[in-house]
From TrEMBL:
<dbReference type="InterPro" id="IPR015867">
    <property type="entry name" value="N-reg_PII/ATP_PRibTrfase_C"/>
</dbReference>
<dbReference type="GO" id="GO:0005829">
    <property type="term" value="C:cytosol"/>
</dbReference>
<keyword id="KW-0804">Transcription</keyword>
<dbReference type="InterPro" id="IPR002332">
    <property type="entry name" value="N-reg_PII_urydylation_site"/>
</dbReference>
<dbReference type="GO" id="GO:0030234">
    <property type="term" value="F:enzyme regulator activity"/>
</dbReference>
<dbReference type="InterPro" id="IPR002187">
    <property type="entry name" value="N-reg_PII"/>
</dbReference>
<comment type="subunit">
    <text>Homotrimer.</text>
</comment>
<feature type="modified residue" description="O-UMP-tyrosine">
    <location>
        <position position="51"/>
    </location>
</feature>
<dbReference type="Pfam" id="PF00543">
    <property type="entry name" value="P-II"/>
</dbReference>
<keyword id="KW-0805">Transcription regulation</keyword>
<dbReference type="GO" id="GO:0005524">
    <property type="term" value="F:ATP binding"/>
</dbReference>
<comment type="function">
    <text>P-II indirectly controls the transcription of the glutamine synthetase gene (glnA). P-II prevents NR-II-catalyzed conversion of NR-I to NR-I-phosphate, the transcriptional activator of glnA. When P-II is uridylylated to P-II-UMP, these events are reversed. When the ratio of Gln to 2-ketoglutarate decreases, P-II is uridylylated to P-II-UMP, which causes the deadenylation of glutamine synthetase, so activating the enzyme.</text>
</comment>
<dbReference type="InterPro" id="IPR011322">
    <property type="entry name" value="N-reg_PII-like_a/b"/>
</dbReference>
<keyword id="KW-0547">Nucleotide-binding</keyword>
<comment type="similarity">
    <text>Belongs to the P(II) protein family.</text>
</comment>
<dbReference type="InterPro" id="IPR017918">
    <property type="entry name" value="N-reg_PII_CS"/>
</dbReference>
<dbReference type="GO" id="GO:0006808">
    <property type="term" value="P:regulation of nitrogen utilization"/>
</dbReference>
Amino acid sequence: MKKIEAIIKPFKVDEVKEALQEVGVQGLSLIEVKGFGRQKGHTELYRGAEYVVDFLPKMKIEVVLADDMVDAAVEAIISAAKTDKIGDGKIFVSTIDQAIRIRTGETGDEAL
């Protein structure tokens, strides 16, 4: 099993969710996050004063799935989230040792 964590622009969430559903992903978690990368934030003007916005709003999507679904899910996220502009985000894939469905006690891929 693998966990995919994708940090994307907030306005791309619906497109990414639909793309993941099309490749067979049945569930995901969505978390509001703030951060910066190479983009390094930006400056804004508020009531005549200029200030720096270091942490930009992003959305983090987490999905745990079987190993054979990872490549399709990653491709779906890339195609749906890409705008070709700085700040499109990142995708991280990590290994999951165990998954347990609390209600039934199922483990492994059956718990997903």
